[in-house]
């Protein structure tokens, strides 16, 4: 895991748009990591991973919901990665859970 902000992938030297908050021994985190890596590669965006237990502030806010996905610093979702919804968020479209939710 990368806690220093450099992240597993940052194509083109861009800063990470996706942050995956995880913890050691979390099987859902392993699944989320694979999905995030796939989407980030397909969309050409950077991502990073942070151990929620390494930062007391993150542990207080997100500790009971890992994995947590942040997009551009905003909470996008937790526990499961909805790949199509994540792609829409990266494209700047509305993050609504409702179908047909464009701007």
Automatic annotation (TrEMBL):
SUPFAM superfamilies: Thioredoxin-like
Name of this chain's protein: Glutaredoxin-like protein
One Pfam family recorded for the sequence: Glrx-like
Source organism (scientific name): Frankia torreyi
Gene3D superfamilies per record: Glutaredoxin
InterPro entries assigned to the protein according to its UniProt record, in alphabetical order: Glutaredoxin-like, Thioredoxin-like_sf
